[in-house]
Design goal:
The protein has a domain at 12-39 and 73-117: 2-Layer Sandwich (Translation Initiation Factor IF3). Residues 1-7 have low confidence and may be disordered. It is elongated. The longest helix has 24 residues, at 60-83. The protein has a 3-stranded antiparallel β-sheet with strand order 1-3-2. It is α+β, with helices and mostly antiparallel strands. 31% of the residues lie in helices and 38% in strands. The protein starts with 23 loop residues before the first strand and ends with a strand.
Length: 118
């Protein structure tokens, strides 16, 4: 089995948007896994972002919020994969939906697999 399977940790190197892991043979498909996060902007964050839009450029407050939200969804997906006994995830994708004004759902999903080094 690939590194990390026995420790319950899935290395980021064992995840990919492709449908195979280079140097590994997929021996079992453990099923679809997902991580879902629903976040809202705080009043202070919204005010800070509004002020940043006045000067233009990267809206760092929102960039940081988006990055943290995507990372949290990714880690939840990996946790789901570990629960299924997987040591890798292929076909990783993200999706986002605005549920209501200022509230967004971020979904990270893929196929959990057990892979052995070739």
């Amino acid at each position: 089995m690939a590194t990390g399977a026995s420790t319950g940790h899935i290395s980021h190197s064992m995840t990919t948007t492709a449908f195979e892991l280079d140097g590994y043979k997929i021996t079992r498909n453990a099923g679809i896994v997902r991580g879902i996060i629903v976040r809202s902007r705080s009043v202070l964050g919204t005010l800070g972002a509004s002020l940043q839009t006045l000067v233009g450029g990267n809206i760092t407050i929102l960039t940081e919020l988006c990055e943290k939200t995507r990372n949290d969804a990714f880690e939840l997906m990996l946790e789901h994969a570990r629960e299924l006994g997987a040591n890798g995830v292929v076909g990783v994708r993200y999706d986002a939906t605005e549920i209501m004004q200022g509230v967004t759902e971020v979904l990270c999903y893929g196929t959990a697999v057990v892979a052995e080094k070739i």
